[in-house]
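YM 10:42: DUF1996 domain-containing protein sequence, as discussed on the call
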Amino acid sequence: MRYLFALLAGCSVFSTVSSWTEIHHKPFLTKNIDAIVQPGLYTSHMHTFFGSDAITNVLPTSSQLQQGCYSGENGNDFSVYWIPTLYYVDGETFTEVPIFRFSTYYVNSRSEIPIPLDFAMISGNASAQSQDEVDAQPRNNLEWFCEGSDDREPDIAKFPTKTCNQNLKLSLVFPSCVNTDDISQYDFPDQSGKCPAGMKAIPQLRYGVWYNTKSVAPGGWDGDAPFQLSCGAASGNGYCGHGDFINGWFQDSLDNMMIRGGGGYNDGQFISGAHASALGESTCTPTDADPDKGTSDYLESLEMM
Ligand SMILES: *[C@@H]1O[C@H](CO)[C@@H](O)[C@H](O)[C@H]1NC(C)=O
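YM 10:58: structure's back
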């Protein structure tokens, strides 16, 4: 009997169903830094940060991220995640749109290897100002829409042109193929899910971001949305939407991500590891690791560029 159980457990462990997990993370910092694109500088457009607070303008290793405090709900995950900051524009006044929820999803349906330690990647293009430029990077599925609505703009990467009754939502898929000989090289799989030659499939990361637009724009909008991303040249478009990730998971959880995951938030699925065995709020308070430099003020960040 015991032997049979072991056999069954073994089978489920190695099955390749499309399993996934969702983790919520609170924003803890808005700042004009970008350790991947502009290392060492304070000249970036504004970003909103989630996850490990051991982040400055210098690219951290996974083990450096693990020295920090995390803002998420999985104590095995000290990754850092960031996105361009979204503002509500009223004349000359830029007000940060509050984030209702930031979720990361990890899907391991096709993974061949765990996400490598120290791996950093970007999805989307901060310079894109049209749908064509977004589509130049296929399969990032950058999409803005109103939560609870089936309406989509002809350009799916453009902000909705009508008031959202619920939250405004951003969805973004990350590359899931990496060259293990040089982890600075990564890409998307092709349509059939196959990685480019010389690359291996890792679990796929996706962001879901819910913005509470009602709290800043209670009157709503009709036409170009009164919102502007820090990377955007003008309000109304979301084409420059992008996301950044630096791996801060512990190795045991990265291994478990290959065999666990699966299922939705709060349904018992959890990427386990030695540092946490269930979802839970962090007991520390994430802070700015480099508080005397850079700025959290949008207009000041424009001057520093
Ligand atoms: C981003 O978009 C710009 C404008 O189309 C383009 O020049 C640039 O090559 C793109 N960058 C990447 C990494 O795709």
